[in-house]
Amino acid sequence: MPENTDSVILDSAAAATSGPALIADVDKRDKPRSLWNDAWYDLRRKPVFYISALVILFLIVIAIWPGLIATGDPLQCQLINSLNGPSSGHWFGYDQQGCDVYTRTVYGARASVEVGIFSTVGVAVLGAVLGGLSGYFGGWLDAILSRISDIFFGIPILLGGVVFLSAVKGGSVTTVSTFIILLGWPQLARIARGAVITAKEQDYVLAAKALGAGHGRVLLRHIAPNALAPVIVWSTIALGTFISLEATLSFLGVGLKPPAVSWGIDISSASEQIRNAPHMLLWPAGALSVTVLAFILLGDAVRDALDPKLR
């Protein structure tokens, strides 16, 4: 009996000692996570997220420092090498002008990334601001902004690019990005408008207004953080779409123009020699496809993580 009593006493003491620690661990595990922490937790469990993110990171690095993996000059061409196939030291062969296809493919990432990032940031800012104001204030402001967005939304972006950029002399990253921003914001504005309309009806927004919070504080502190998720998802996918759009416009001869180095320009040149030198088309087209696919996969992963209905 004494031994049993001592054992019970020791067990009780151990439980009393470890009790606070166990409660703390339970509280730590059960502590609710925010939307962004929960999304990051889900993203870390998706291999697709890591693969697409690594591809995009590599693309950004070579866009900033192409000399890390390509030591040549993309504009240095020798006609004697015209249409020569892959060889030692020139893995991707030469194009019609005798330029190294590998070097041009690497340097072509810079223009694509610049157009994609500038266009996406411009469209996100313009569309989110106009759509957010339209959804929050409603009334006549919503009616005016909605009709304006309908006008721009009704213009096919590719056809608009051909018409608009054909009238502009000299294609550059700034020109192409400005055009994409001009015609690309209406879709994001609609998404932002819907997200703001949903958020402004929530109890925490109504409580903030009841406590006397102004429009600016309500928009920036309460609505914007909770309406930002669909904007981020759309922007991630749209970045790859804008890169593809730049290549399409350059292929048609109205986007970036020589001496700019672009995948669209190289694909356009290669289309004339696809039978004689298929390697000219394979590498820039492959780089473009992988880039667009990486952004689409990343956008899908972010969408799945930020949308509670898809978990």
TrEMBL record:
Domain ABC transmembrane type-1: 109-299
GO cellular component terms, semicolon-separated: plasma membrane
Iron in keyword set: no
Keywords: Cell membrane, Membrane, Transmembrane, Transmembrane helix, Transport
Transmembrane spans: 48-69, 117-139, 151-168, 227-252, 281-302
Cell location: Cell membrane
Protein's membrane topology: Multi-pass membrane protein
Matching InterPro entries: BP-dependent_transpt_permease, MetI-like, MetI-like_sf, OppC_N
PROSITE patterns: ABC_TM1
Pfam family, one: BPD_transp_1
GO biological process: transmembrane transport
Family as reported in the entry's similarity comment: Belongs to the binding-protein-dependent transport system permease family.
PANTHER family in the cross-refs: ABC TRANSPORTER PERMEASE PROTEIN, OLIGOPEPTIDE TRANSPORT SYSTEM PERMEASE PROTEIN APPC
Protein name as catalogued: Oligopeptide transport system permease protein
